[in-house]
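worker-03 picked up job from queue 'complexes'. Input manifest follows; two sequence lines, order preserved.
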Amino acid sequence: MTYIAKPKFHHPGLKKNELGYTHRDYEGKISTLCAGCGHDSITASIIEACYELSIEPHRVAKISGIGCSSKTPDYFLGNSHGFNSVHGRMPSVLTGANLANRDLIYLGVSGDGDSASIGFGQFAHSIRRAVNMTYIVENNGVYGLTKGQFSATADRGSKSKKGVTNTDNAIDLVAIALQLGATFVARSFSGDKAQLVPLIAAAIRHKGASFIDVISPCIAFNNHAGSTKSFDYVREHNDAVNRLDVLVGRDPISVDYAPGSVQVVEQHDGSKIALRKIDADYDPHDRLGAMTFLQKHAAKGQIVTGLLYVDPDAEDLHEHLDTVETPLNRLEADDLCPGSAVLDKINASLR
Amino acid sequence: MSDKKPISSVNDFVVRFANVNGSGSASANELFARAILRHGVPVSPRNIFPSNIQGLPTWYEVRVTESGHLGARGGVDMMVAMNPQTWDKDVAGIEPGGYLFYDSTKPMPSTKFRDDITVIGVPLTAIANSTYTDPRQRQLFKNIIYLGALAALLDMDPKLIEQLIGEQYKGKEKLLSSNIHALHLGRDWALQNLKCPTGLRVKKSDKVGDRIFIEGNSAAALGAVYGGATVCAWYPITPSSSVAEAFTSHCKKYRHDAATGKAKYAIVQGEDELASIGIVIGASWNGARAFTATSGPGISLMTEFIGLSYFAEIPAVIMNIQRAGPSTGMPTRTQQCDIIACAYASHGDTKHVLLFPEDPAEAFEFAAAAFDLAERLQTTIFLMLDLDIGMNHRLCRPLKWDDARQYDRGKVMTAEMLEEGRDFGRYLDVDGDGIPYRTYPGAHPTKGSYFTRGTSRDRYARYSEEGTVYADNMQRLVRKFETAQDLVPRPLQANAERPTKYGVIYFGSTAPAMDEAIGLLEARGHQLDRLRIRAFPFHSSVASFLAEHDFVYVVEQNRDSQLRQLIVNENGIDPVRLVPIVHYDGSPITARFIAKAIGDHQDHLKVTPLRKAVS
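worker-03 finished. Artifact:
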């Protein structure tokens, strides 16, 4: 059930962001997911990222499909409009919403069943259309709500809770997103908030199609030995190529990392991403390099995480369609209707 | 030519062109139809074409009809047989006493003709080949040459055709003069070598008036422009693709910001119909007017989203240009076969609003109205066209728009209203009409947000699996549908001259054939009151009409008499009193068919025609 409202009181001394909102203003209802679910950590990271970015909560539209992951938009940004749509169809609903009002921030939340199986096509096409959005897949390799069937991101050879070995090849959504031209591509782990929060923040500030695949273990059905999406497995095989801070004209989102070489990427809106390189040779501006790097590491059983690719000067669908700056949903008859004089001319041309 | 007197008719005959598709004949044939219109004589042309791009048979039929009967007539008075592949069938289809026009460059054995028709041979290929060297020109101008020959044979004014060509190639001097040259090549040859005119003649008249000549799909697209649609998402499917294409071209002309040149619209060709309707629903949820255009198979794919639109109460406009189903069916043939599929689309208990325009003028009006209705009722509105209206040019009254008209954006709670402290329940029926208020995303920092979902929820959009809460909501949706009855276009009734116990119900593209059939039936002494249904849910006048008549014929273009089923189901009346008259072979229904079917049934009822009783 997702109807449990959270109490509104909070400590009077709670820290406020630039807009005067506290962390609590970015929260939603109480989660009804299983205790320890990776998805709840992602929810917390989204809240953190939006708080840190000082986003007005109601200016975010949160759109999801169907599944455990798709329920989560009810648990964050309680003052935002949310749309728990149809299984696998979040991308089209988000695309339409985005076309109607280019001024809002679009957060698409989906799962691996939602995006890699039933909605694989919509995932692909929203990416290739360069919809300005942050598309997060909460990837646990399993169908949770229907109790533990393999999803299309489950690795070949991994075992289900019931002991069945998966014989199908896995779909790597990151690889697909790279191939289809996503201009911000990242992978992270729900258990690594320090990496995930700035990734979400940077993705929100990115103009264009941002995609983040977040490995998010299913505590109920996919956290056992033999699973390649369990907390233990992901921790052991996590190969982070970088860590980042996002700078938006105030204090950077500070996380403690060991010092390393730092590369600063300036995004279109002026925000900066400070990338602390872990793998010195990894270049996040090299799409082809990223694809090769991912393949090589996947073959070794490693899960590459971090900001894998970014094009800071990306274009989005509205630019491709050359739409007016005013959101289309604010245009009225005076703006849209050519009027009777024009119609008379049209009639005359049809005789 | 002996058995039968040649047909003699002025301004009332059918010419059918048999062509090979991809041969460039379409524009010459359309020119022929337009030229007759310029004589002040109404025409009703129809494309009969295969699901193919090049090489298969295609026909273009022009009904010349001074009396203004715009439905298909049936039968062919003159066949322009340009396709050897379909020759035998084409020749066989000519009415006794009719005319066969063909390319006589290659001699044909006499067995290939008929004795009871007039055969007119023109060496089109020879004329074209001796004039042009380029193979493409030879082919294209051959079409204009036959147009020239027909002009002579049918006594058409060549000046009017020249004028049309002049308008078509305005500013393209070379094309203009070469087309006019080709026209005269054909005309001169016919005048010198054939008996001109034939029994079929076009004579100047004044029956066209201020009417316009437009395809239904283009008119519907224009209705979307005038109705304020800003988002269009679509997936190509015959016969609906030209809606989105026309919307694109209308928007390019009329929807760019004068100062910046930027587009006040967004058109996306989706990856499939699921994405198309998803985009429409996302855009409408976010307060834009959005639509998609599709046909039967697309409707099948969209049904899950249509249920969401119904249950989560999100506006959507779907233009369904119907074609013959089921499955891929006959994709380039017309039917009215998605009535049930649309009226009750999706799983669970659902009902949807359908609009049935009769011609392009109504397609324009109803398309524009559909956006008001969608936002007022917060649900899917189907604009039910079909291939016959959508893809053929049809003579209709001029399109009209009242400049004082503002869009009805429905019940939207604004930031100001929320600030005043108005109680916002997304699914709360505050006015008793079943229609709740909605808010646009991003409207207010702390008030009015809600979580949209296809799952059950209470009046304040809070998730709930309580049976009473669910049923309360489902009942409100019924109330909302009742409200719709009085918002949609009402049926139009026309009564017979004398009181009668018999009525007929029809809708959409059947209208012109029905109007003509009434005349034929009256001539046989059958009196019928008629009701043209223009929307579902049915207005109360439908029930009154049924109550006032012993038998009501329901004329439609599908096998299972779907509108009749819907009437029986929604009005709970005795099905025996509703007599199905169905035509579903993929060709447009004709007056002859309707008159025969109804006339036979009347005879079967042993109705003594009044005239006979009197005499």
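worker-03 released lock.
Chain A has one domain: 23-349.
The mean pLDDT of chain A is 93.
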